[in-house]
Structure formats: C-alpha cells, structure tokens
C-alpha cells in the first residue's frame, strides 16, 4: 500500500525529473522540486499548489542546497525521498575538453549530488528512515569514447552510492543507484547535451555531434515507465541497491562484465604474483 511521502528532486524542469515530479504529485505525494529554470517548471506544473514547492537552486552551491532542504522541511515537515537527477553530458575527447569544462561537468553531476546527500542526511538520520535515489547511467559502468567527463562523474556516483549504502544501513535509510540507458527525453537534444568548444579534427567531434543528436527522439526507453518504477521501489521493504533500467543498459553492462571477467582470468597469474614469498 502506497504511503504519502515528501520528495526532494533535482533537475526537474525537463526530462526524467519533470516526469517524476508530475507523477509523484498525481499520486498524492508532496514534492520539493529544484531547478535552475523554475519559470519553465511552473509553466509545466500549474496544479497541486499546496503539495508543490518549486525552488531555483544551483546544486553546485552547498549553501543553496542547504537552504532549499531547509525550505522543504519548513513547508512539509520532513523529506522522505531524495532523488539526485540533475546532470548533463559533455561530449569531447579528453584532449579537447578544457579544464573548466571538465570541472563544470563533475561539479554538477557529482558534487551537486554530494551536496544534496550531505545536507539531507541529518533529517533522514533523525527520522531513522528515508530513501536516497542517485541517478547514474550505463556510463557509470562502461567507458565511452568522447564522454570522459561524463564517465568520470557517473562512475563516481556508483562508487559513492555503494559506500553510502554501508554508511546509512544502521539508520534505516535505503540507497538505490539507478543506471538508465537511452530514454526518450530531451537529454540528447541540442542545448541539453554539451560539446567541447575546442575541436581537434582527428577526433571527429563534428561527426559525433551529428550522430549523438540524431538519436534524440529515437531512444527505446519510455521515461514514464522509468519514473513509475522509482515511485514503486520506495514502497518496498527490500528495495534494489543497484537498478539497471533499459534493455540497452542490461545488455551493455552484462557484456562488459563478461569481458572484465575474461581479462581478470587472463592476467590472474600476474595479479597473484605480487605477495611476499
């Protein structure tokens, strides 16, 4: 049986964040929705005034995140589910991506998530309950050419989630790291996906841009099905820790793990040769 919860969701002006916000509100939950574009968010959601708190927040600012969580607690009395969804992809080889571009990607995708977790934890720990959902990606398990900064941030999300699971288990707080594949949102549209400004022709970034943006609107995954699953897992007594979503993600990561296992076995004689005699 569903219980009414207070959700704190980042990156809610479009894509999965917007879809999840709408679904949670329609199910009778309350939502603190953060975005850097609350004007668009307010135009997208015109109902549920008493249950909906849109906040303009730069998640890379620890102070802004802390203030947003305090505002949510003040309005709704608690937070039950924190969903770290905000993020973007920067396409380009590691040689093309500038230091500033690389750091900005990690600042949003990783440190924005860390800021939310750090500031929501005192409330969840006091409640002795709650659920943190970190949206990673299949790029958190498999490396892709021309996606190095995105890979770095999403691999890190998987890593901190696995550590967090162990840290928070004694307090009755669940953690799920979600790895979606390609879902039909605006994520791959021009203006959403970013590209390195410095282009070195041998890496074929112009061609990569045309290819990647051509996938927009063709993705196999249904975002409405994805967000429905998120609202369902928070009701489970034993919720998933690692959740792969999408046929493409399952097949990609399964194949990758099989290749890893083959490599481990191939070089096992070196691996086991490093102990003192």
Describe this structure in words.
The mean pLDDT is 92. The protein is globular. A seven-stranded parallel sheet has the order 3-2-1-4-6-7-9, with helices on both faces. The protein has helices at 15-26, 38-44, 62-76, 99-127, 148-168, 205-214, 223-233, 247-266, 268-271, and strands at residues 6-9, 30-35, 52-56, 81-84, 90-91, 130-135, 173-180, 194-195, 242-245. The chain is built from nine helices and nine strands. Helix 1 (15-26) packs across helix 7. Helices cover 47% and strands 15% of the residues. With 277 residues, it is α/β, with parallel strands linked by helices.
Q: What topology does this entry show?
A:
Blueprint: E1 6-9, H1 15-26, E2 30-35, H2 38-44, E3 52-56, H3 62-76, E4 81-84, E5 90-91, H4 99-127, E6 130-135, H5 148-168, E7 173-180, E8 194-195, H6 205-214, H7 223-233, E9 242-245, H8 247-266, H9 268-271
Parallel strand pairs: 1-2, 1-4, 2-3, 4-6, 5-8, 6-7, 7-9
Structural class: alpha/beta
Q: How do the helices and strands follow one another from N- to C-terminus? A: EHEHEHEEHEHEEHHEHH
Low-confidence stretches: none
Tell me the fraction of residues in β-strands, as a range. 5-15%
State the shape. Answer: globular
Give the proportion of residues in helices: 40-55%
Describe the sheet with the most strands. 7 strands, parallel
Distance between the termini: 59 Å
Radius of gyration (CA) equals: 20 Å
Number of helices: 9
- In order across it, which strands form the biggest sheet? 3-2-1-4-6-7-9
Number of β-strand runs: 9
Mean pLDDT: 92
């Amino acid at each position: 049986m569903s219980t009414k919860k207070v959700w704190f969701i980042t990156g809610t002006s479009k894509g999965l964040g917007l879809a999840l916000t709408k679904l949670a509100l329609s199910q009778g939950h309350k939502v603190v929705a953060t975005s850097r574009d609350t004007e668009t968010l307010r135009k997208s959601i015109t109902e549920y005034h008493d249950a909906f708190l849109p906040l303009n927040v730069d998640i890379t600012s620890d102070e802004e995140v802390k203030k947003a969580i305090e505002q949510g607690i003040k309005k709704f009395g608690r937070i039950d589910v924190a969903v770290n969804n905000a993020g973007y992809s920067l396409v380009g080889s590691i040689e093309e991506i500038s230091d500033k571009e690389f750091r900005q990607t990690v600042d949003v995708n990783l440190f924005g998530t860390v800021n939310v977790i750090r500031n929501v934890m005192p409330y969840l720990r006091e409640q002795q309950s709650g659920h943190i959902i970190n949206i990673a990606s299949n790029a958190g398990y498999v490396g892709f050419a021309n996606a190095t900064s995105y890979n770095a941030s999403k691999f890190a999300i998987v890593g901190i989630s696995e550590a967090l699971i162990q840290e928070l288990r004694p307090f009755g707080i669940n953690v799920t790291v979600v790895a979606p594949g390609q879902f039909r949102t605006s994520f791959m549209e021009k203006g959403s996906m970013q590209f390195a400004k410095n282009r070195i022709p041998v890496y074929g970034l112009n061609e990569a841009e045309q290819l990647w943006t051509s996938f927009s609107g063709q993705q196999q995954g249904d975002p409405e099905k994805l967000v429905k699953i998120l609202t369902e897992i928070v009701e489970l007594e034993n919720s998933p820790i690692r959740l792969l979503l999408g046929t493409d993600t399952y097949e990609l990561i399964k194949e990758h793990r099989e290749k890893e296992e083959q490599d481990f076995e191939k070089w096992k004689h070196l691996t086991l040769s490093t102990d003192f005699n």
